[in-house]
Amino acid sequence: MLHYLKYNKNFDKLSFEEKKLLDEAKKSIEDFVEGSPEISDVNFATRNAHAKTHSVLQGVLKINPELSECVKYIFDKDEYDIVARISNANLKISKKQKQFPAYGFAFKIKDDAGRTIANYPLVNFPLFPVNCAINFLQLFTNINRFYLKKIRTFFPLLKSCYKILPSAFTRDFLYEIMKFLKRKNNFILSQEFYSVGAFRMDDRMVKIKIIPVNVPVKYPKKGTVRKKIRTYFKDSGYTADVMMQVCYDLTNQPINKLNVHWKNTQDILLGQIVFEKNSVLSPNNCEHELLSFNPFESAEIFQPVGKIQKLRDEAYKASLQTRKKINKLLKYK
C-alpha cells in the first residue's frame, strides 16, 4: 500500500529575492487594477487576470458515498452548496466575440452557515510553463506594466518570455498544447478544468480536476460564450465529476514543478458538481463581480501548496483590495 507524502511548510518557502520581487509584482497589480477601467473600457475595476466573467452559477457538490474513510472524514456531509465563476483568462475584457479560448472554472464550497470552506480556481490547461518563482514574478510584473503602456516595457517583457521558453518545451507541455489546439473550438462547458498547482487535503497534497458528464462538445447555438451558457442552462443541467490525485513522492508527483504531469497516482472520485436548469446568476451583478475565489481564503486544511501558489496568495490580495477600494459602492462577500 502506498503511503502519501505529508504536507510540509518548506514546500511554500520563499527566498529573500523572491519576496523582494513579489513586492514589485504587487505594486504592478495595484497599478493595473487602478487602470483597468480604462484598459477594458468598463465602468468598474476588474481583476488583473480572468477579468471577463462569462457566468456565475449556483449549485451543489455531492460527495462520493464510496469515498475512502481516510478522506471522507474531511467531507462529513452528503452535499455542499457551491458557487462557480466561469471566466476568460485574459487580463483585459474584450468586446470581441472571438477570444483566445483560455478559460477558468473557479468554485467555492460553503458550509451550512454560508461560510467558505474551500476555493478551487481551475483552468482548462493542466500545466504551467514556469517553474522558477523569480522568472514567474518578472514575467507577471512586465505583463502588467505592458498593459499599462508604460515606457520601455516591451523589451523587458520579451526578455521575460525568453527566460521561460526552456520550461515550456517539455514533452508533457508540448503534448498538452497539441490537445488544446484540437479542442479549442469545443463548447466551454464540455471542457475539463484543472488545478495547475497542488492543494492540501488535511495533511495530504492533492491536485483537483473536473470532468463534465454528457455535455455536448459542439454546441450548435450561435452567439457569445456568455449567451451560449445561458441558452444551455435554459434547457439542460450540468454535471461534472470532481477527481483528485494524491502526492506520494516528489519524483512522480512534483509539487514545485508545474510543467509536467503527475504520474503513478490514480484519479479518485471526490464527488460530483451539479447545476440544475436555470442555475445561471447575473454576471453583471456587482456582488458577483466582487466574489473572491482566492484559495488562501479557504480553511487551513484546504490551503494551496507550493512556491508559485504562495505567490498567488499576495497577488489575489493585492487585486481584491484594490478592486474593493475603487469599487467602494459595491458590496464584497
Can you describe this structure?
The chain is an alpha+beta fold. Helices cover 31% and strands 22% of the residues. The chain is built from 8 helices and 11 strands. Strands 1, 2, 3, 4, 5, 6, 7, 8, 9, 10 and 11 form an 11-stranded antiparallel sheet that branches. α1 runs parallel beside α3 and α3 runs antiparallel to α4. The N and C termini lie far apart (43 Å).
Record the SSE blueprint:
Blueprint: H1 16-40, E1 52-63, H2 69-72, E2 79-88, E3 103-110, E4 116-123, H3 133-147, H4 154-164, H5 171-183, E5 193-194, E6 198-201, E7 204-212, H6 225-235, E8 238-246, E9 268-275, E10 280-281, H7 286-289, E11 304-305, H8 307-326
Antiparallel strand pairs: 1-2, 1-9, 1-10, 2-3, 3-4, 5-7, 6-7, 6-11, 7-8, 8-9
Helix pairs in contact: 1-3, 1-8, 3-4
Indicate the radius of gyration in whole angstroms: 19 Å
How helical, in percent, are the residues? 25-40%
Strand content: 15-25%
Query: Which oligomeric form is depicted?
Result: single chain
Tell me about the biggest sheet?
Answer: 11 strands, antiparallel
- Coarse morphology: globular
What is the rounded distance between the termini? Answer: 43 Å
Q: Helix tally? A: 8
Averaged pLDDT: 86
